[in-house]
Amino acid sequence: MNVSIRLMTLEDVPTVHEIDTLSFRLPWPERSFCFELTENPVSRCWVAESSGCIAAMLVLWLIVDEAHIATLATHPDFRQQGIGERLMIAALVSARNEGAARAFLEVRAGNSGAMTLYEKHGFVVAGVRPRYYKDNNEDAILMDLEDLNGLEAA
Ligand SMILES: CC(C)(COP(=O)(O)OP(=O)(O)OC[C@H]1O[C@@H](n2cnc3c(N)ncnc32)[C@H](O)[C@@H]1OP(=O)(O)O)[C@@H](O)C(=O)NCCC(=O)NCCS
Question: CA separation (Å) from 119 to 107, 124, 135, 136?
């Protein structure tokens, strides 16, 4: 499948917000993506395109030598085709090229599909934030990829 990965633009935000809304019980407000693109200097926002559509989106915060995946979602019509994986790796490799040495993220304790993706690429459980998600008091699992140098392209 032909997938291209590029930086997000403001024009992408309505579609990115739609993917977010389809993917999460607590989606970000649309203005949050605008803020990430225009006002947050640590933010790196990416999309994956397939068949002329935005198929997935990712926001990463690069704080000194740490990359924090703030959000990642693939449109339901494009899932399980390797797109989220390619997007995540591209964003992390770019962060590594900017000086990131390790990566972190939080994931719902019940989100086994996402955890499988992260574990496939070396993330390990580093801790639990109890009752982190306010809609159902679900725990967040903090995951850590200690050495970004080991990350391989998909
Ligand atoms: C998690 C998510 C981003 C994965 O995106 P995707 O494009 O469907 O994932 P990929 O096709 O690239 O999957 C790559 C790997 O992840 C794992 N994976 C992805 N979805 C999975 C699922 N539903 N069940 C089990 N493993 C899964 C597999 O290891 C897969 O590799 P494989 O195909 O070699 O087995 C997507 O399911 C999604 O948007 N979910 C809703 C939002 C969300 O939970 N985001 C993560 C928040 S922390």
Answer: 12, 6, 26, 24
